[in-house]
Amino acid sequence: MRAPNEIDFWRGFALITIFIDHVPGLVFENYTMRNFGLSDAAELFVFLAGWSMRLLVDGRRGRMSVLESTLRLESRAITIFTVQMILTQLALAITAAGALIFENPLFLEWNNAAAAFQEPVETQIGLALLTHQLFYFDILPLYVVLMFMAPLFVIADRTARWLPLALGLTIYLATHITGMNIPTWPVEGRWYFNPFAWQLNFVLGFVVADPKGVLSFTRNHRTLLRILAAPIVLVSLWLALTDFTPNPLSMPQPRLLFTFDKTFAAPARILHLLALVALFSGLFAVISRLLPSITSFLSLLGRNSLYVFSLGSITALLSQYVRYELGSSLWVDTGVLGVGIIIMGFTAWIVEWRGRQRGS
């Protein structure tokens, strides 16, 4: 078991934030990071995934070979795909059960589930191909694609340290210029998390984590970066609080570069994320001294992120039905959040307990 560290801590923070945001209308939803800036926990989570990939391939025992890195990353992609299949089927079963228990067929249309019950044959194929995704269960497909793409960036990194960032930026710009995205089927549309755009968050985490990379100078100029980051965070806060959104029709081409669009990971959102990273990096040392129990708990969640995210997503879906039945109130919402945190914490604990049992 790893000791509490900054990456796991912030990943745990992101997991709880994502849980809150996945229960629409929850009173605590008004206080998550997406209400105080342009980026949200999803961007942070993907950035930290890229950082974690750097720690994996440049491990303490020395750099993995390209072949070993590829096998590890592709096996991770297969694991995430398997988890996505299980979660989706569980979510559909819960949706169907909700419709039966509460005698409300409208529940079958919640969270983009309608196609699974109206066109089950086509939708089952779409679910397996990841071309049909339920709302709030659409971030793992992004991770599947990112993990399958990851060896490409590892190979680029072994070729030249500047190449992963150059490659990521090239793909990102091409995506914004062409509007490239993966189509959905059988319901016509596009992926909510466009992997060709979101890969830049992932690559930035991978590059920033390199102590000898093209962005390594940031480690020696943290004070300057914080000074530069502060006004960006403040402007983003003002934009969020005033609910300002640029009119795409008044923007120059390519318009996607000048919006706050989440699907295409707009530059403004990425800039805000990087400013937050610059402003709050190193704060973990202070938090760990002042709040050691919270630090340990969030790091526990972060160490077991896939399991915690999975159970958290199912719990969030169940919470939607609980709030429908009991109504919305501070007491109900506090109970939902408390139960959710307990379930996520227990999930992380049992995973590590099993690991210790196997090692004994």
Roughly what is the average pLDDT, rounded to an integer? 94
General shape? globular
Low-confidence stretches: none
Query: Total domains, how many?
Result: 2
Proportion of residues in β-strands: under 5%
Euclidean distance between termini CA atoms: 13 Å
Strand and helix order: HHHHHHHEEHHHHHHH
Count the E strands. 2
Largest sheet: 2 strands, antiparallel
Q: Largest sheet, order of strands side by side?
A: 1-2
Helix content: 55-70%
Computed over alpha carbons, the radius of gyration is 21 Å
The secondary structure category is mainly alpha
How many DSSP H or I helices? 14
A few lines on this structure:
The chain has helices spanning 6-21, 41-57, 66-101, 114-118, 120-129, 139-159, 163-178, 195-208, 222-241, 267-280, 283-290, 292-303, 305-326, 330-359; strands spanning 183-184, 189-190.
